[in-house]
Amino acid sequence: MWHTLIIREIKDTLLNTSAMVLVFLCVLIIPLGLYVNCQEFEGRWEDFLREHQDYRSRYADRIAHNVGARGFRPPSPLSIFCSGVDFILPDQVVTSRSGLFRSTKEPVTDSPHTLLLGRVDYTYSMTFVVSLAALTFTFGCISTEKERGTLSLLNAYPLPRAVLLSCKVIGRYAALLVPLVVAIVVGLVVVDQSSFVSLGDPAVGLAILVIFIVTLLFVFCMVCLGVCVSACTHQSINSMVIAFMVWTVMILGIPRLSPMMAKALYPIDSSTTLRMKKKLAVEDHEKAYVKARETLMEACFSECGAPEEDMRRSPPGTEEGKKAVLLYDQRVVPILETHQKRMAAQISQLEQDYSNNKNVQNRIALALARLSPATSFTCILATVCGTGIDAPDNFNRNAQRFQDQVTHEIYDQVILRQYKGLTRFLYAEGFNSDNMKLPDMTYAYPTLTESLQKSWLDILLLALYTLLYFGIALVRFNQYDVR
Q1: In what order do the strands lie in the sheet with 102-104?
Q2: Model pTM greater than 0.90?
Q3: Are 5 and 164 in contact (CB under 8 A)?
Q4: How are the residues of the chain apportioned to helix, strand and coil, as percentages rounded to the nearest 5?
Q5: Residue 155 pLDDT class (50, 70, 90 cuts)
Q6: pLDDT (0 to 100) of residue 482
Q7: What are residue 427's DSSP bridge partners?
Q8: What is the four-CA torsion angle of 225, 227, 228, 231, rounded to 10 degrees?
């Protein structure tokens, strides 16, 4: 008997005109969105390869000892499914002798309308289009049948109401699942045509499988939400109004209002203020270093008995002046290292304090946003695709690793000496500058295992929301007056 009820629910859903319109929209927008994002990814990957190759061909064997090395971040192949924060991440890392790297990003001006109107990727299609389709498929599954009088006939069958409700949920879910799976398969076929994204890659294939499973769970959650709305109302018009109101709050309201609420609850300094503090700190340390260097120069010349005129000559004209310069070269090294370490420590402390405050604010915003299952779904996909909220931290880790590599292979091997505006290079013992090569930045995205470990809470919340909505629907349906 139960399979007959499931087939009946599938037929009722697919014969609905509005449902068919949404099915057509899903089948169209998902493959189209994947195709457009795949083409855009190919363009960004070609730009990355071109910039990287041009830089390597120009500077790989001729990097200046006092010039910052550049590292390039490759775009994530899975960003075609969820762009996330990928488009605000820096594109390049520039190292420095002080141990502090800086990040740069080229302004995106190719498609300003995309930035203005928003991107349509796989996550957008599921969060906005498919979730709306799920509520449209289900908001009248109980209240409409009550108005037609068919609900009392169904209740006459010797079936528990829990079984009847489960048949409705499974039938509506299956009716939505068929066109959804077709759309996803067509989209993956489109993606597989790209020469830059290989679905045969085990890492990519497993990530797409996880994305597909999480999508099925999210769609099932939205179906249960629609059935819950229908079980809580007795008229189809009320079900429709409440369903769209719930969709507006869950999809449009909570995720977008939560950052503003977090800023109001836990205000912190802006990134502009942080940059100003860092700039002032660097200027203060540079002034202190220049003053200490001048004081050391005067002390060295005085100790060696060199005439004052030699301090204004380059090179000095007397033997005492030359000895003073050699003494200065020896003593200035620890002063330079001390100032660089102090400056790096202060800058790191400023960045760490800002990062800690920002993390607290982000946790508050995310906790509020997770009141919506759409947030959990988006966070899971973004984390798996390497474009989630942890992506900036991952970029900083890669950048710091590149900075340490350049410091070890170049900066520690070549010591700079500055005297009267002139710079001299002293090489470490056993170092051959002819064999010096510019290190290449190896950018690592989190593995699938690491991404799932970070996403366990969102996966659990998505499952709990599904059980919650189904449980409320079951309680309300058991109390439902079918007459």
Answers
A1: 70-72, 92-94, 102-104
A2: no
A3: yes
A4: 70, 5, 25
A5: low
A6: 61
A7: 414
A8: 160
